[in-house]
Amino acid sequence: MAEKKKNGSRRNVEFDRYHYVDRDIYSHSKKETPNHARHSAPARRQPPKRRKKKKRITFGKVFLIFVLIALAGMTAIGAAALSKIQREDADTAPYVQTPSDAPNWDVISSEDVMNILLIGTDRPSEGTQRSDSMMLVSLDNKSKKIRLVSFLRDMYLEIPTIGKDKLNASFASGGASLTMQTIENNFRINIDKYIQIDVDGFCDAIDRIGGIDVVVNQQEADEMNRVMGCTLSAGKNHMRGTLAVYYSRMRAIDSDFGRTGRQRQVVECVAEKMRSMNPLECVAAVNGIIEDIHIVTNLSNAEILSLTAQLPQMLSYEMETKFVPYSDTYSNVTLDNGAEVLDVNLEENCAILRDFLYPAE
User: Fold this and answer.
1) Which residues contact 177 (CB under 8 A, 6 or more apart)?
2) How would you write the pLDDT of the chain (361 residues) with one tens digit per residue?
3) What is the maximal distance between C-alpha atoms in the chain?
4) DSSP labels for 85-121?
């Protein structure tokens, strides 16, 4: 026990700081000693018993133990989930070129920006697997922003080893590698990684987080009620996976531009739902999604774990969206075979896209 001088007292006293009360400080006079005790032998003073200091477990320690246990559990789940991911490296080297229609600019990149191409595919059972949607998810850790860019599948572009065709023909001919390099070649932006997921997988992922809340207009609500047999109304509606996926794919009511806009909206709604979850729930949901659905990617285990660990922080990033081609930078063209395509002004689109993804550069 430490020694401490109490309010001007001339003696040092050992005390238990949690239980000791110095009664002298409440009295201005000393107690009289009884007469019969004045001439008796002084009583032998017994030293105070030392109290053993109890080890207290603070809330902080309990919380730390809980977090460590939870992280250990998630690591085990993560290992099982990661083993189910299909890995396909993207060998893009044979496809590197500068199309004659594209500006002769270097491909732009930054160490602060990671561009992941999200490829949504049709069901493999429908024959040759096609890319139903292509969306770039750009993670900017410097400006703390996530930027989403939809690439319309009907753009008429130069595809390495094939020639001019619709953008979605690149996936049918060469998979993710050819799609990544086709976009990089034509728009002069770096594509770091890709994640490929089919329609069923996206549906399961939305169900895994408990569905999402989506704002629809009256025309969208009427079309979904007619086709899906639901009872949506204009405004915010809660959607399970099947409804959200149909909403993101329908284009009978407008065009492919409206369709890609709905796809970006669904991704934003997924991010909004995950923001409402605590970090442990969020990471557990990601582990469950990885374990349940079929994913093909060239991300390594270390990269996936790193992105998962950063997910709670990245969900707070501001989200911005765009689509390619931009308004007034393309024309509608019908080819000799009757196919309708978008003839794109690549120089204008390259300049706008590069400024959007790399404002600091």
Assistant:
1) 90, 91, 92, 95
2) 444 444 444 444 444 433 434 434 333 444 444 444 444 455 556 655 555 555 555 655 555 555 555 555 455 456 777 888 898 998 999 999 999 999 999 999 999 999 999 998 876 545 566 677 899 999 999 999 999 999 999 999 999 999 999 999 999 999 999 999 999 999 999 999 999 988 778 898 999 999 999 999 999 999 999 999 999 999 999 999 999 999 999 988 988 899 999 999 999 999 999 989 887 788 788 888 887 788 999 999 889 888 888 888 888 899 999 999 999 999 999 999 999 999 999 999 999 999 999 998 7
3) 129
4) SEE-----GGG----TTS---PPB--TTEEEEEEEEE
Q: To the nearest 5 percent, what fractions of the chain are helix, strand and coil?
A: 40, 20, 35
Question: Tokens representing 317?
Answer: 């990033």
Contacts 24+ apart (CB under 8 A), 180-183: 180/90, 180/92, 180/117, 181/92, 181/95, 181/96, 182/95, 182/157, 182/158, 183/117, 183/134, 183/136, 183/151
Two tokens at 227? 């086709």
Highest CATH level, class, for 210-276 = alpha beta
Superfamily of domain 72-205+277-283+294-357: LCP protein (3.40.630.190)
Q: Tell me if domain 72-205+277-283+294-357 and domain 210-276 are identical in fold.
A: yes
Q: Are strands 131-140 and 145-151 parallel, antiparallel or unpaired?
A: antiparallel
Where in the chain are the domains? Answer: 72-205+277-283+294-357, 210-276
